[in-house]
Design a protein that fits this description.
- The protein is of the alpha/beta class.
- 27% of the residues lie in helices and 16% in strands.
Length: 223
């Protein structure tokens, strides 16, 4: 992959209330001047809505300048193979079908309150009619299709092919090391960036949209 003019890395959070400091959202923009990179922004916004708004404006500005950007988020963009089929989604690209379903389902408010456990329970109902594949939630959020603890394994794999070592499964939504909630609330925000009118023609999501491309107003890779 060629060098980029800028790199924007995002440490995401699924917090249900505004937060700064530890266990909250941080992002850092490194921009190239000549042959050297320098820190152009280092921010700790208290909510996802605020963070994604700031990131969107940064990317729009870089796109207008015709600069290339690599944007990284620290949560998975996809689920184990077969998830789209299990949801009975009619789509040519399984990852895009799942993303579209989450965009329609997830509500993430300006104060960080969200419906991720409700959505996980509904997805479980469609896939298995029981507490799986998603699991993990506070005791007071348990229901007939979502448990605070891991239930029996279903027909979907616990981990993706790219998950190695002691990585937590994307199905785990709550507790130490969990990444599932970050993905549920994060994917709709990344989709909004990818499809924004000012970014759609210059953005591609790795690894799903593999073809690298050039265009008049800039190039943005989201990974």
């Amino acid at each position: 992959m060629p060098e980029f003019d800028a790199y924007l890395m995002v440490d995401w959070s699924a917090s249900s209330r505004p937060a700064t400091g530890a266990d909250s959202i941080w992002y850092c923009l490194m921009a190239r001047t000549g042959t050297r990179l320098h820190v152009a922004a280092l921010e700790n916004p208290s909510t996802r809505v605020r963070a994604i708004g700031e990131i969107r404006e940064i990317l729009l500005g870089l796109a207008r300048q015709g600069r290339t950007v690599l944007v990284g988020f620290d949560f998975p963009f996809g689920y184990p193979a077969g998830f789209a089929d299990a949801l009975r989604l009619e789509c040519d690209r399984p990852w895009d079908g799942v993303w579209s379903r989450l965009v329609r389902s997830i509500v993430d408010r300006a104060d960080n309150s969200n419906n991720r456990f409700d959505v996980a329970g509904e997805l479980n109902r469609r896939v298995s009619g029981a507490c799986g594949p998603f699991w993990g939630c506070p005791r007071n959020r348990e229901c007939t299709t979502l448990s605070s603890t891991k239930g029996p394994g279903g027909h979907l794999a616990e981990r993706r092919l790219t998950d190695v070592g002691n990585m937590q499964p994307i199905w785990k939504l709550y507790g130490n090391g969990s990444v599932g909630s970050q993905a549920l609330v994060g994917i709709p925000h990344v989709a909004a960036l990818r499809n924004h009118p000012g970014l759609a023609t210059v953005s591609r999501v790795w690894p799903f949209e593999l073809v690298w491309f050039g265009c008049r107003i800039g190039r943005i890779a989201i990974a």
